Amino acid sequence: MGQFLDGKNLADERAAILKTQVSELKSQGIVPLFCVINIGDDPSSKLYIKTKKSRADEIGIVQKVYQLPKTQSQQSLLTLIDRLNQDKKVYGIMIQLPVPPQINLNEALEHIDPEKDVDCLTPSNVGRLWRGDHYVEPATAHGVLALLDHYQIKLHGKKVVIIGRSSIVGKPLAALMLERDATVSILHSKTKQLAEYTKNADILVSAVGHANLITPEMVKENAVVIDVGINRVNNQTVGDVNTVLVKPKVSFITPVPGGIGPLTVESLMEQVVKLTRRKNGR
Fold this sequence. Notes:
Blueprint: E1 3-4, H1 7-27, E2 33-39, H2 43-59, E3 62-68, H3 74-86, E4 92-95, H4 105-111, H5 123-131, H6 139-150, E5 159-163, H7 170-179, E6 183-187, H8 194-198, E7 203-206, E8 224-227, E9 231-233, E10 236-238, H9 243-246, E11 252-253, H10 260-279
Parallel strand pairs: 1-11, 2-3, 2-4, 5-6, 5-7, 7-8, 8-11
Antiparallel strand pairs: 9-10
């Protein structure tokens, strides 16, 4: 029977450490502040922002939300980003996804100062990630590695399969795992016969948002399964993995909720503090 990888407890432990670091910064007159730009009224975005605000308040980080209308123009968005770039009190900037269709997200991301890019999505920071000299990491990918480290699950020489090629999870996680000497395969919606890859994985990560995608016959005996998917089924939050059926076959598995989700929020806070310390030479 597989063991649950408890992301919630780990997130709370790391938050306590971070709270001490933030107190030290504040004693020196440095207040970690990051800005979230939310365009439109997507319900899941507002819930995520609320969750982040709660964690930020607990740690002592200031989160400022710029709530913009869904009709927001590209130029006014760029103007706001430029203003936040120039504000010396702001240490982090992020654009809440998704954005309305009239917004050119890539152009907007290119406008964010890389030194304030808390999501690690600017071109220069993405390049640094793949080059291996990054100073900030995407929150979910960072959270996955933090959880594996906590349970002393090594990546060196392991076969890792990641389902999902997004810029916020799949791709950056692949880069970070390659740094740890894992052999990484990225699967996606056009990959044929997923099981041919997944059943050979020592560590399987699913981040596609497809409920019950991963079934027991797709998983290797004693594998580690990381479920990043978030889906709503019958008013319940579930992941991409059929946990009830898969758990008896594997060594470790993340629950949903309570696995990667809390660590994503906590890791975002860690990136804010990291950028704050970097900007102040700490």
